[in-house]
Amino acid sequence: MYKPRHVPVLASEVVHLLDPKPGGIYVDGTIGLGGHTQALFALEPRITVVGIDLDREALSYAKKRLASFASRLHLVHASYTDLQKHLRILGIEKVDGLLLDLGVSSLQLDNPERGFSFRANGPLDMRMDTSQHLTALDIVNNLTEKELVDILFRYGEESFAREIVRAIVATRKSGAIETTTQLADLVCRTIPKRFHLRRKHPATRTFQALRVAVNDELRNLQNGLQTAFQCLAPDSVIAVISFHSLEDRIVKRFFHYKALDCICPPSLPECVCDKQVEGKILTRKPIVPSKEEMENNPRSRAAKLRAMRKSKAST
Ligand code: SAH
Question: What ligand 1 atom has the least distance to the C-alpha of 215?
């Protein structure tokens, strides 16, 4: 049987920041295979964790892995954007710490059937939640040329977006593009050889862009941060690990806004806004993995961890 191995990224740093206390309630908004939650329980078993994920398969692995903490663990199949609703169902009002570890799990990436990877052949799928309708196949084969270019530019920051999409549109005229290998090969052929990087597959950006679009990842993050912050008890910490610059920018801007005491335009002679400081940034610069962690766990390479403590006075 396939056994996923997903080493949690920056786990000791996350645990240190969340600093679990006996009796506390913590949310792992992207529990995946349960690596970070396990690290939290290992430090302080007398906590309760609400573990959320869009991926049912991941939840069933997490359930097995964390079986010894079953009485203190609530697993929920949902998007972290719906956190508030699910906490209410569980009778929880505020939580004492929260983690979002964005990106993909090994379970998703290593299983060709899920269609996340350009390294193995599989259907063009990329859904985190397999009960969702929209797949990468729909996007690649049905969107207009303009819409596709937009996705590759915005979510993949792909400078050859136009050329790649032109090739996609030409190819799909004679039949649908159905597999990851078909798409990866097309991208490889389209980006001129001299622009291929040694350590990065030419299709990396295209696949990232499609994944972000299929799962509406940036909008979810934007909305999820708002909800998460609302559910956080005063004096508690929210930590977010991101894996590309678009996500990191959203987290950084959100934390900066929360830390401001005034949002008046500088031209005003005095402050007329009611903005209060809502939290304190705990990571002036994002925390990144050590060289050793990057060597041992190549998936951690792009990780950036940012955290903020909600103000005592903020509700
Ligand atoms: N920290 C985990 C790994 C998380 S990988 C561990 O140590 O094992 C990221 C996970 O986030 C994936 O399982 C993915 O399905 C999930 N995910 C992505 N977007 C989500 C969303 N909007 N709501 C809930 N889970 C999400």
Answer: 19
